[in-house]
Design goal:
The protein is mainly beta and about 160 residues long. The chain contains two helices and nine strands. The protein has an eight-stranded antiparallel barrel with strand order 1-3-4-5-6-7-8-9. The radius of gyration is 19 Å and the shape is elongated. It starts with a helix and ends with a helix.
Length: about 160
């Protein structure tokens, strides 16, 4: 009886350890399009196409609704960093995964489209919509021990 109880406890502890594995994926981008919301025309307008390097890290800790996202980019010779904690994840009918993120000063949304290899980053929200967005052309970067693949993003 004690042997069975011990085996059950070991199984439960081992299962709990497996559930806490972190998943991280890094995307590299060499170009992005920057859009601003135009109130007069009621649409997003392309302001600039930038051919500068960006790195997007998505780290999920235990589940798709927990973790953080970091976007680091070079913009006209200056480094810029956008980051936030993941608080929601959703998937639409086109298999695009979307993470809602927030930090102390902002709320944003990041959407990965595996068919077009793009990441859309919407940020600077007011009460109605996001006022700014960037569309990154991305390629996944191979990280050691990274197990997040485009199929994982579809869940």
């Amino acid at each position: 009886m004690k042997t069975n109880f011990t085996l059950i406890i070991i199984f439960i502890l081992n299962w709990n350890i497996e559930a806490q594995i972190d998943i991280q994926k890094r995307f590299q981008s060499d170009s992005r399009k920057y859009y601003l919301w135009n109130v007069e025309h009621d649409k997003y307008e392309l302001k600039e196409t930038e051919y500068e390097n960006s790195v997007i890290d998505i780290r999920e800790i235990g589940s798709k609704t927990n973790g953080y996202i970091v976007i680091s980019m070079i913009d006209n010779g200056q480094s810029r960093l956008h980051h936030g904690s993941i608080y929601n994840y959703s998937k639409d009918s086109d298999d695009e995964g979307s993470w809602s993120i927030k930090s102390k000063f902002m709320r944003a949304k990041l959407t990965y489209n595996p068919k077009e290899n793009t990441i859309t980053y919407l940020y600077d929200a007011d009460s109605k919509r996001y006022r700014k967005l960037m569309i990154f052309n991305v390629a996944p970067d191979e990280l050691p021990n990274a197990s997040l693949k485009s199929n994982d993003l579809k869940d």
